[in-house]
Amino acid sequence: MNQILSALSLMFLCSLSSLSAQNKINISGTVVDSQEKYPLEYATISFFNPNGSEAIEGGITDLEGKFNIEVVPGNYDLKIEYLSYKSKTYKNKSLTKAMDLGTVGLEVDMAALDQVTIVAERTTVEIKLDKKIYNIGSDLTTAGGTVSDALNNVPSVAVDVEGGISLRGNENVTILINGKPSAMAGFGDTNVLSQLPAEAIERVEVITSPSARYDAEGTAGILNIILRQKETLGFNGSITLNLGNPDLAGIAANLNYRTEKFNLFSNIGFRYDDAPRNSFSDANYFDRLIDGALRSPEYERIVEDQQVERNNRGYNANVGMEYFLSDKTSLTGSIFYRYKEDADISNNDSERFNNNAIVERTLRIERENQDENSYQLALNYMTKFNDEGHELTADFQFEEDRENQNTFINEDYLLTQDAATVPFQKEQIFATEDQKEFLFQADYVLPIGEDARFEAGYRGNFENEITDYRLEQEDLSDASFFVNDTITNLFDYEENVNAVYSQYGNKFGKFSFLLGLRLENTQLKGTIDSRLSDEELVEAFGFPIDTDFNNNYLGLFPTVNLIYNLGKDEDQEESLTLGYNRRINRPRSWYINPFPTRSSRTRVFQGNPNLNPAFSSAFDLGYLKRWDKFTWTTSVYYQYESDSFERVEENTGQRTTDGIDIIRTIPVNLSNNIRTGAELGILYNPKKWLRLNSSINFFQFKTEGEFNGIDYGAKNTSWFARFSGKVTLPGNIDWQTNAFYRGAEEGAQTRTEGLFSMDLAISKEVLKNKATVSLNVRDVFNSRIRNQFTTTEFFQRYSESQWRQRQVTLSLLYRFNMKKEKSRNGSRENGNEFEFEG
Asked: Of the residues 92, 108, 124, which one is the last residue of a structural domain?
């Protein structure tokens, strides 16, 4: 406080003084690597009183290594520092007028390189105007794991037992790779992230208040996954080998070759795993009224126990080149390819009861084979008109994904009391999905003065998905197969989004703001080629189906992001942020396709072609305080969503051939959803050998609305928390423990019980610190099991599901030529974002 009062007093006296010597002057210069001459961004420049030890003024370099700092004329000790480099000091330098110090070269401190490696492994958090950046570092518990495993350790993010990703408890989250939609993220299917190695991640950006530059999709926000891309001159890279139980084997390589003119980079991997899963359900069925008469169920209780053997293998490769046309212009091209094969065998043992006695038992065997081919072509052009940030970027992407699925289903009686039972029909399912997506994007950035910036751009995203689904059933009279006309269909679906945006940001001392407006037009267009007429479709599904629809939605999406630095310096030691944004939740194709899936005879999922997009408005207030060894982050948020999606279960009124009611799950638009919450994160590093971090997220949501005369309103309060601790033991052995707990949740029809899981890992540097051996156990107690209670007017059901059992993995990571990291083009991996440093 005394320092603050002294500084204020000095400023007041300076403002009264008429002496020209007291007017501040500009001291500028550029900091570069002395050997390779590339700029060092975020280097620190400090001005000291020659007779004291406290810095009087200071600042940091920008992305081009440049600095421009105002100081009062006088004599100073000037010190320039950068991590892993030898600092340079100018003693008792006389600064009486504006001066350009020119280019200052710093030498690499070879003795500090090992320390740099330690710092780089630490998990840190940075606060920007529209996001939090988690540099996940070297997380031992995800060694040999996947991107989904790594995301599950990021605060605010949760990955459920089936691979579904949620942000602050909201599952409508958009996944980006390096700032753009990508085939790596699986066209919105987050399960694809379980095929990519966690080692590829450099950092994760949690964007809860996206600026106008981003697509407005995703009411929860955006997770932007930044992949590693080495910038070191010469040839360098790493190779990772993984072995595990249940059966797991994998190899991944990150290779890079860089010269002053171009940079070749690649990520190549293979993964095989046999990850069994299981589920269990116990359902009791009620009497119900049909046409004024009380109708009893064929079976009062049905118990199902499902065991699935999954044999999965996948290959992925990303190869590209960045070519520097000039010092300020580059062209980057890349090709991504993924091939995946799955072979699943499911055994479903079903027992049916009346009067607490078993009356029938069947075994359903389902064999499913699936192969998937995905590739992506991407081009990026960037030119900088000057060194002040005036630039233009343009992107083009083409992606295609083709999936083939063949399923054979056979069910037999193991026990029955009905002597006149009719055998079950065998079923064959042939399904193909062909998805194509084009992306065109251009972004223009114009600095206005030192602290203001204007941005504008266009983005066009054009997606087409064709689903060809054919169900064949056995003719019991001659064992031949015929096509089921009711279910078989061809669904051609398009989602076209055109958007323009502009935003303006400025900084006044410790206060920064970013205001934006985005105009988007969404076209949802589809045609359904069915063997049934419109009247037959209504009779089969219970509601009219538009087999040729073309819906357009035009929307304005404003964004406001504010940040105020409460700290003494401009180093983000303490900051307060406020964000507002409007978002859209567009229904995906499987939410619209009205033809039900056939993964079960008794429970089906059916899309709703009458589904409209949901719109939300959200507010977010955040606070960060960073001490030397302790970082505290917290935020509160509120979101109002209209026409929100809710998945409801209802009785179709139809029965299987053996008399079991068929229950369908269907997404519907409810009137609104109100969500409020608060989160707290802590990072604590009391010693070099100890690192602790923890976070907790508390949220409440309230839904309102009805469907088919049934009220599906609900109010739910829940929370989740995680803890991570990393300890360096004698012998330079690292030990890490991660724990996660998710509280119970209650929806319109289903209550989900709380869930706890723990991961453990141990690692050791070998081969003169060129390699790392690690052993980790995910879900130590095998407790990552989802327990649910579902109640409707037709039935009550208890269910359990475990997507993946406890996994033990041994990993070896070998690095070569990866010591001196170059940051010449650090902005290029995420150069499309306007970030004030707070």
From this structure: 108
